[in-house]
Amino acid sequence: MLIWFVIIYWVVSVGIGLWAALRVKNTADFAAAGHSLPLPIVTATVFATWFGSEAVLGIPATFLKEGLGGIVSDPFGSSLCLILVGLFFARHLYNRRMLTIGDFFREKYGRTVEVLVTLCIVVSYLGWVAAQIKALGLVFNVVSDGGITQTAGMLIGAGSVLIYTLFGGMWSVAITDFIQMIIIVVGMLYIGGEITAQTGGVG
Which of 1, 119, 120, 127 has the fewest CB atoms within 10 Å around its CB? Predict the structure, then answer.
């Protein structure tokens, strides 16, 4: 039963992502959704980005193994970074209609610095993206009772995201993130309620 829910969720997510791709008319639409996303969807995108499979599955395990010190970088460090960027950089970059952080460095320091900064960002994200993909593979493996190997699950998950991202860019990512945020919140509330009930309730 659970595997069918995951399959339906997967098909719907890809479908929504491809549908959102119809909004893409130019580079600004692809990279930044035309700078026209409403606040609820932007909030959902940030939430779903940082509370993906790696956060839901990986951070609790790290906390149990290493304690509070093991999760200083994520979620506390990453959350602080989001706040600092929002307070000091986001409005400035938005008002200049820039599409990427690299655009800012190109404008200020030239093409070479832009490329170097972009490469640094790509490298810094490799570990985070790898953790997300590995957790996706684990989800497919668990809900299929081993019918789907973790490697196959990783390929399915990564391939799905890649398909709608390549077609729809930020529009597809934002709309699917909005749906995923709702599912994450509802799921976490349900799990929290179940755990609370099994442990005798609050207090």
Answer: 1
